[in-house]
Amino acid sequence: MDSPLSIQGLLADDALPADAVDERILDAALEQFALVGIRRTSADDIARRASVNRTTLYRRMGTKEQIVRSAVLHETRRILTQVAAAIQGIDDVSERITQGFVVSITILRGNPLFRQVLASEREDTLVWLTIDAGETLKIATTFVAAQIRRAWSDRGLPDDANAEPIAAILVRLVHSLILTPDAPPDLHSTEQLRTFALSYIRPLIDGGTAASLCEMDGSK
Q1: What local confidence, expressed as pLDDT, does residue 11 receive?
Q2: Mind listing the domains of the chain with CATH numbers?
């Protein structure tokens, strides 16, 4: 069984592809969405790209709305897996946190699905990325909270309830930076992202546990 702190354990639920055919269908849907957008993609387009017939598509995935939801969650998991892989071998806690922030922003900004639908279907996409983004943000928050707890554990600090709200703050920050890249703060380059993470995100993580706050109070 996967550890609950592993990427598999964190993100496992009933929306995961049931088998290789489901995964092929979701990959095909994402490829088609990135090519022409979600609105212009038909069920026949997805079925053809996945090499299945329409009956199999609907039996396995449901309606187009359900296919879109499953595909978006599939892509979210894939992005978080990429982030996890990028920071996995970093022993230094501060560098792991910094790199995780930089990599997350970089991957999302270059994501072909996001770029295509935002360019061609901006109105629908903004609804999908804001009003309908709750489930995706919950998955991302769970992932980030696990990374925060790991950072605290590596420093010998106890786990506490602050990991979730801090993770939610960071996920909301990344979400905002992706949706409105031209608003302050100016974080367009990798160096700007790294400096911001070291100046503001690292202190948030370092001072986030109750034990850390007590140590700070005691040092005054």
Answers
A1: 52
A2: 14-72 (1.10.10.60), 89-220 (no CATH)
